[in-house]
Amino acid sequence: MLRALRSYLNDLDKAGSGDVLLSDKALLNLKNLESITRSPSHAGEENGPASLEEIKQRLERVEGVPTLRDRMVFATGTPLSRLMFVGEAPGQEEEKQGEPFVGPAGKLLTRIIETMGMRRDEVYITNIVKFRPRVDGESQGTANRKPSPGEMRTFIPFLADEINVVKPELIIALGGTAMAGLLGIESSVSSARGTLHKFKDCPVIVTYHPSFLLRSGSNSDKRKLWEDMLFAMEHLKMPISEKQRNYFRS
Ligand code: URA
């Protein structure tokens, strides 16, 4: 894609077009491309992993967590993104498809990302725990549960490695479990919203988990989550239209 864009711009240059008019959407795409062309990643420094593939291979070998099921669900999206979403752990649908956030909560997350003006494959989506937590042995059907603090502690070093490779400019922690795992904050999501926190050097904001919104259905909760996304977009200096500013205002 970058090669095609470069050749297109070269052609325009040769044809003598000094200026190119871009729509808001094209500008937004270019802003996302900035992440692709930003200075090379320092992944691999301090003996950290050189790539997501390496982290994935290390995760395959994680042993001794019998409270989790066996199928790994790694991340999705692009490691070149400036924005990373972190959830808690895969559920039944994610385990079946081998991809995070593809069930009902995931569909809502995809809609949120699109409403922000991006595509799902333009951001990076991951979970703290990469295996579905076990409930009552093997045949747990649709039953899902939140990962325990101990399960999360096992996986935080892997997430820290992912963050070190992707180097997002912002992480959005989805829900109280991701917030507790990433930031060690045990209070309510409501009280931690609206502030820039830090995981190591990386800025983090906290918002409600999409599954909370599905349960709540309330317009005022939708607006609160949306205000958190506007906060994220402002932090990333993304263009925000008047229409976007006013979503879910009653
Ligand atoms: N909830 C999460 O926290 N992560 C998923 O991948 C799916 C649902």
Short description:
This protein has 250 residues and is an alpha/beta fold.
Overview of the molecule:
By secondary structure, the chain is an alpha/beta fold. The protein has one domain: Uracil-DNA Glycosylase, subunit E (3-Layer(aba) Sandwich). Helices cover 46% and strands 13% of the residues. The strands form 2 sheets. Strands 2-4-3-6-8-7 form a 6-stranded mixed β-sheet, sandwiched between helices. Strands 1-5 form a two-stranded antiparallel ribbon. It is globular and about 50 Å long. Bound molecules: uracil.
Give the topology, please.
Blueprint: H1 2-14, H2 24-37, H3 52-60, E1 68-72, E2 76-77, E3 83-87, H4 92-97, H5 104-115, E4 124-127, E5 131-133, H6 149-166, E6 170-174, H7 175-183, H8 189-192, E7 197-199, E8 202-207, H9 210-216, H10 219-235, H11 242-246
Parallel strand pairs: 3-4, 3-6, 6-8
Antiparallel strand pairs: 1-5, 2-4, 7-8
The structure holds uracil.
Helix tally? 11
- Summed over residues and divided by their number, the pLDDT gives a mean of 87
CATH class, please?
A: Alpha Beta
**Uncertain spans:** 1-7, 35-45
Radius of gyration in whole Å, from Cα?
19 Å
Helix content percent band: 40-55%
User: Strand fraction band?
Assistant: 5-15%
User: In terms of structural class, how would the helical and strand content be classed?
Assistant: alpha/beta
Which strand order does the major sheet show? 2-4-3-6-8-7
Largest sheet: 6 strands, mixed
| Bulk shape | globular
What is the number of independent domains?
Answer: 1
